[in-house]
Write a structure and sequence with these properties.
2 copies of one chain form a homodimer. The radius of gyration of chain A is 20 Å and the shape is globular. The two termini of chain A are 16 Å apart. In chain A, helix 5 runs antiparallel to helix 7 and helix 6 packs across helix 7. In chain A, a hairpin with a 3-residue loop joins strand 1 and strand 2. With 306 residues, chain A is α/β, with parallel strands linked by helices. In chain A, the strands form 3 sheets. Chain A has a 5-stranded mixed β-sheet, sandwiched between helices. Chain A has a 5-stranded mixed β-sheet with strand order 10-9-8-11-12, sandwiched between helices. Chains A and B meet through strand 9 and helix 7 of A and strand 9 and helix 7 of B.
Chain lengths: 306, 306
């Protein structure tokens, strides 16, 4: 019999993604559904699809702080509905070992085993989207720490974050920050072709639109991406000074704006990091992108159960 | 024959400290001398004192970024005179294995083996003095990373640090910051009994004087310690969110001001850290204090050579 597969589950914001993953980290099947009605029913439906295909374990990736022993999400500011769910119990009917880990940590694990991190023994992974997640690989292994890199402070008296802290990186360098900057500038009457995008509704602006408009030369859009990039660069410099990783692997929707946003971050980190601790070429893209968490969850479950 | 001893060297700011350390981490003899004339001659004199006493290795603790392979300090903003010294060659005449590591990393190693860290498998060590140094123990082992925790950014557009960055923790939470705050407030004419200390010379104020004056109820002195403590607390919260260590071990001269300075830091970190990631009781004092680096250097050399 072939080596068994594993199921990876990624509990994202509004979408639940489930995949059947081979022992080598290949995705053999994948579903994506809105979990807005019932997370649990959606989860059952998705797992049922794959459960008969030589599956040995289930790995679940969720945002937030995880209690690994109990398979419970303790704190999840961005997805409060998963807090306290007893996955061990809820998925008990499958009679498979269940593992729960933070989504960015599992994305780092996925990159390490089957993505851009395969050739590195140390790297810092950052997921750049609605929020900022982090995972750290050191000495060839995923570190068993929260790595809540989106919640390091970049503005001591800054805006309050959903976690309760003030001035967190994700309030200044993630999607929310970009959208807020755009909306409030336009509300103040600033000139920008962003006003014409999204059918003229400035409350529907997305980071993608900001990037497209920036690439057409719009000043406001460029400023927004540069400002967010500057804050990302401060964090990159902090992480370089702490870890001096061989690579920074960036993933998530915002990396589409690489040319301005990430480039600015790299420039800022080069200025700030201690001599020798940051190299611009160390900042790389994920090759497995949004699948990193799914693949990481499945392979993590597989390795943890064998 | 008894198990051999090791020599620990701590290259501090103006003092060079050398100790003979037993395999159990006991200090059997210690010298402390000003290294302002010649670091190397002072070093030879100190090592000569102990070299005949069953010594198997020499460990050197220095501030800055270390090239361990070559035994060279690459970058040391606070002690530029050690940059580039070839310790392997300079100490070759002793025919002993030589090891060089960052001083705060070795202080963490000393705490792990023979100090406050003995009962923890993970902790963050911070040396709080002229600058801020850091060392990280994870999974029972000293992490082999720069851990330049004094150079995380706490004020993005803040004062320039000797490392070139702006707004580093050590510019806001260490001795220099406290002294600057005192001097500039007094220059502006602010009322405070700090004006009377140090024989009326406001340019000779020390953190110790600020603490003593604060304990007598002086408003300015208390404000200075609280402000520095607040920045330290921001950093504690960052490190808690990243590492969730079992303990924070604080050492260095500034910990004398624990009651105000550290207490304020703990309060700030409690407010900021993600739920469950920071406990105030996790912040503890070093038991081996300024000897941590010496002991750590000697034991590190011993373990690395055996």
């Amino acid at each position: 019999m072939a080596k068994p597969n594993s199921i990876g589950v990624d509990i994202g914001g509004t979408n639940l993604r489930v995949a059947l993953v081979s022992p080598e980290g290949r995705i053999l099947g994948k579903t994506q559904q809105s979990s807005s009605v019932s997370l649990i029913d959606t989860l059952y439906g998705a797992i049922d699809r794959f459960a008969e295909r030589n599956v040995s374990s289930i790995g679940i990736a969720s945002a937030g702080l995880i209690d690994r022993e109990r398979c419970v999400v303790n704190v999840s500011p961005n997805i409060p509905s998963v807090e306290g769910l007893d996955f061990m119990n809820l998925l008990g009917k499958y009679n498979l070992p269940i593992f729960l880990e933070n989504d960015a940590n599992l994305a780092a694990f996925g990159e390490l085993r089957a993505g851009s991190g395969r050739n590195y023994s140390s790297f810092v992974l950052l997921t750049l989207g609605t929020g900022v997640g982090g995972g750290i690989v050191y000495d060839g292994k995923l570190m068993n720490i929260p790595a809540e890199l989106g919640h390091v402070v970049v503005e001591p008296d800054g805006a309050q974050c959903s976690c309760g802290n003030h001035g967190c990186l994700e309030e200044y360098a993630a999607a929310k920050a970009m959208i807020n900057m755009a909306t409030s500038a336009l509300e103040k009457g600033e000139q920008s072709s962003l006003r014409e995008c999204c059918e003229g509704n400035i409350y529907r602006i997305t980071p993608q639109k900001i990037y497209e408009t920036a690439m057409e030369g719009d000043g406001l859009a460029r400023d927004i991406l540069r400002k967010a990039g500057k804050y990302l660069g401060i964090a990159l410099s902090d992480f370089a000074n702490i870890f001096n990783p061989e690579a920074f692997i960036l993933t998530g929707g915002l990396t589409n704006a690489w040319d301005i946003y990430v480039e600015e971050a790299v420039k800022e980190a080069e200025k700030r990091a201690m001599r020798g601790l940051f190299k611009k070429d160390s900042v790389i893209r994920s090759t497995i992108k949004e699948d990193a968490g799914l693949i990481g969850a499945a392979l993590y479950a597989q390795e943890s159960s064998s």
